[in-house]
Design a protein that fits this description.
This protein is mainly α and about 150 residues long. The chain has one domain. The protein has 7 helices and no strands. Helix 6 crosses helix 7.
């Protein structure tokens, strides 16, 4: 039985709808995006894809979402700080809960429920899910991409 049994059609619809090219950055001129953040974003997103053009489009989407909300385009600066705080917390140890790279054992069920409730989630929703389960948002995104790739094969 597939991990996405009973959910494949919904997931494939979402994947096709959000497939590159497109997304939030498709109609935003590159001159309106923070160039430093865009360069940083391409480097980060290459962790998810070997294609520079796809990494650039993902970075454009993230920065365009911030632009549309009227926020400062600092997605990759915030991501780096957030990941640094997770690493620092892990290095310091202690008794308090810290976000980690460890996925909950029931992550598949968590993601199924999440995508049923949010068929096309925003970055903020994914980051809130990660925080709720004490996982680094970047690690959760990698897990989502991995599971999506399996479902689409």
């Amino acid at each position: 039985m597939s991990f996405f049994y009973g959910f494949e059609d919904e997931l494939i619809k979402v994947a096709k709808k959000e497939r590159i090219p497109g997304g939030a950055g498709k109609d935003v001129p590159e001159e309106e995006l923070n160039k430093q953040q865009l360069r940083a974003g391409v480097k980060v997103e290459k962790e998810h894809t070997p294609k520079a053009s796809v990494a650039r489009e993902i970075a454009r989407d993230h920065l365009s979402e911030q632009r549309e909300k009227g926020e400062k385009q600092d997605y990759y600066t915030r991501l780096k700080k957030m990941e640094g705080s997770f690493k620092k917390a892990d290095d310091e140890g202690g008794e308090e809960e810290k976000a980690t790279g460890k996925m909950p054992g029931n992550i598949q069920n968590i993601l199924k429920a999440f995508f049923r409730a949010h068929p096309a989630p925003s970055d903020d929703q994914v980051h809130e899910l990660a925080e709720a389960h004490n996982v680094s948002p970047h690690v959760l995104e990698q897990q989502i991409y991995k599971l999506l790739g399996k479902a689409l094969r």
